[in-house]
Amino acid sequence: MCTSRRHARSTWSSFDLKKNFTRIYSDLNFYRRAKLSRHVVRSELAGAGSAGASSYPLSEIQLGSRIRGMCFYAVTAFTAIFLFVLMLVEHPFVLLFDRYRRKAHYLVAKIWASLTVAPFIKIEFEGLKNLPPPNTPAVYVSNHQSFLDIYTLLTLGRSFKFISKTTIFLFPIIGWAMFLMGVIPLKRMDSRSQLDCLKQCIALVKKGASVFFFPEGTRSKDGKLGAFKKGAFSVAVKTGVPVVPITLIGTGKIMPAGMEGQLNPGTVKVIIHQPIEGDSPDALCSQARDIIADGLFRQG
Fold this sequence. Notes:
The chain has 300 residues and is of the alpha/beta class. The chain has helices spanning 2-52, 56-97, 103-117, 148-154, 174-181, 191-206, 231-239, 251-254, 281-299, and strands at 122-126, 139-142, 160-161, 163-165, 184-186, 210-213, 243-249, 267-272. The strands form 2 sheets. The chain has a 6-stranded mixed beta sheet, with helices on both faces. Strands 4-5 form a two-stranded parallel ribbon.
């Protein structure tokens, strides 16, 4: 009895031992497979990382654009300080001899804008022959993509009066220079201010000055041409002067709206279209928008 019991225990012990070895062997195989799969996953991740490393230069491009932006503003501030002094000195003579056009101030502004943009971007002009003579009043209109648009337009050397938010006039040097140039202030979302702005524009045009409008009212965030407001065209109809449509191409890519701290490399193209005239603000508005849109489409 005892022998049979011992034999049974021995049999069960050997069975348990075999079972344990089988389990250990299975566990080892499982561990090896798990280790192998982890190695494969790590390899794939490493491969993906090395493939994605090509995206690293993108951050370098962004860093380069920010450095260019800082240099751009450093140049514009440095030149503005010295040229503003010149503007201050000549201001009494400008008020005395050229109160409405202020061509001398706009010549200084052209020098400032040219010195600022020349080290960073190239500007190409098309249709300069379509510009009216310097002393001929007109209403200029353009699409609006970027903060860079003002610099680009000032390089044309025409003494047209811009319309700007009142808050910009508070900026040191730049805002003060705008005041000396006779830039027209506007409070957005204020209907009375908008009406006063249009009245000022009409009065200036009747006295021989030109005015400039961005009929979209604000910068385009996606580069697409927005709807035009007809205020500029009402001024043209009431004063009987031509409208000069201008298409700006490339400024939105070089300095996108909302990203004024960056300056990407690139070329800006300015297309000056033939002046248009009419006796209906709505018709002029539609015609000018179609002309500017066609300019964008042809270059797109």
